[in-house]
What does this fold into?
Amino acid sequence: MRKATIHRSTRETGIDVTFIIDGNGASEINTGVAFLDHVLDSFVRHGLFDLTINATGDLELGDHHLVEDIGIVLGQAISESLGDRAG
It folds into this structure.
């Protein structure tokens, strides 16, 4: 199974992501940013990936730290789940 689990913790955010390339479109996304949750859910559903995200952040200062860090972690998880990219 092509899968990756990544954790990132900074002063502003805490993020846990599990990404499965060969999924079925299942998601459990909790970012605290409703529109971001919607976009990520659509990405997963239409791409037939599986994704779990639990994220907390300093939303009282705006959502930019959280959105940026989720992008970093999701990119790392996708890259790691692809492995050697053979096949």
The first strand starts at residue 3 and ends at 9. Helices lie at 34-47, 64-81. The two ends are 13 Å apart (CA to CA). DSSP finds two helices and four strands in the chain.
